[in-house]
Design brief:
Length: 163
């Protein structure tokens, strides 16, 4: 797969607008020829204030694909979503994150941790000869919906328990 052969060298970055936190121009080297690619950073805060989800377009076998590398949409145990004085906008940031994640076009679903996108099973399928096992629009939608529901459930629990 194309992403297993990439080597990235950051050459520049700059702020583009509110939708893209910054645009990083990367030099990519899939096999022997040098190509230019662009990663786009989307602010997806909540897990941390600076949590970032990355997207890019790639070509594989003459087709163009959208790649999403999800940051961290998890509400970890102990996260205070209500009455969090050091991070008062945490719940609103999570809401923004889910709006952003649901708006992204996706073919290849990757993430900050392999468990997000079932990396081990997909890698095994790839080694067994399955063509493009990392293309997973349905898995991405399911993952985002599950993470959003977990957030909403925890937010409701904390609001109900708040004084």
């Amino acid at each position: 797969a194309w992403f297993l052969r990439f080597r990235f060298d950051i050459t520049s970055s700059w702020v583009v607008d509110e939708r893209f936190v910054r645009r990083a121009r990367l030099s990519t080297h899939p096999s022997c020829s040098e190509n230019r690619g662009h990663f786009f950073a989307h602010l997806t805060p909540g897990h941390t204030k600076g949590c970032t989800t990355w997207t890019m377009k790639v070509s594989d076998g003459g087709k163009s694909y959208n790649v999403v590398i999800v940051g961290g949409p998890y509400v970890n145990p102990g996260y205070k979503l209500v009455g969090n004085s050091p991070y008062p906008g945490i719940a609103q940031d999570y809401e923004k994150t889910f709006r952003v994640l649901k708006s992204l076009p996706v073919d290849y679903f990757l993430g900050a941790h392999g468990g997000y996108f079932d990396m081990e099973a997909k890698y095994a399928k790839m080694k067994a000869g399955t063509a493009l096992p990392f293309i997973d629009r349905t898995g991405y939608a399911k993952f985002v919906a599950e993470r959003e529901q977990a957030f909403l459930t925890e937010l409701a629990r904390q609001k109900a328990a708040a004084p």
